[in-house]
Specification:
With 180 residues, this protein is mainly α. The protein is built from 7 helices and no strands.
């Protein structure tokens, strides 16, 4: 399995986890349905009962903290899709460099390989491929931030564990980058 395969697999898994998290954060449509049924019941009980429309409008929006969480998780999803797309492009870009073409002499194959190497160096292929890995680190950071922000309102202890895990990943990334 090549580095591009690993990036592609990891980006796909993270994107599916992000998508599942996004779906889980959506408002429950049953809440709006229950309010509407309650209003219909109140109206049917008597002509003098006045339904309260304000109860319906309060359940239609997201709190501002939820908007921030969804912004972070959607950004994380976007970075995952970009990393997967970049890995696919990288695999397609590298495929012609691996393939040997034709029945050429040893000297012609050596010249062809040198031209391929010159193109790899000219387009800074190593830096481009490393950028896809950085996209995955950004994905993990944004997902960790969104998950810990979402959990902070529900369980501080669980959120603290997520924050510590995210911080350790950031520290690991910094140490790894410092060694290079």
């Amino acid at each position: 399995m090549t580095c591009m395969d690993i990036i592609l697999t990891f980006a796909s898994i993270c994107s599916s986890v992000n998508f599942t998290f996004i779906v889980g954060m959506q408002l429950d449509p049953g809440d709006t349905t229950n309010v509407l049924l309650h209003l219909i019941l109140m109206t049917a009980n008597g002509p003098n009962s006045i339904p309260d429309i304000n109860a319906l409008s309060s359940s239609a929006g997201f709190p501002s903290s939820m908007v921030w969480v969804q912004t972070l998780v959607y950004a994380s999803l976007a970075f995952g899709i970009l990393a997967a797309f970049g890995a696919i492009l990288g695999k397609q870009w590298l495929h012609p460099y691996k393939a040997a073409q034709g029945q050429e002499t040893l000297e012609e194959r050596g010249m062809e390989r040198q031209m391929k190497l010159d193109r790899v160096l000219y387009f800074h292929l190593q830096a481009v491929l490393q950028a896809f890995l950085v996209l995955l680190y950004i994905l993990l950071l944004l997902f960790g931030l969104s998950l810990s922000t979402h959990m902070w309102a529900q369980q501080n202890m669980i959120s603290s564990v997520i924050i510590c895990t995210t911080a350790s990943h950031i520290l690991f990334y910094m140490v790894q980058r410092y060694r290079q």
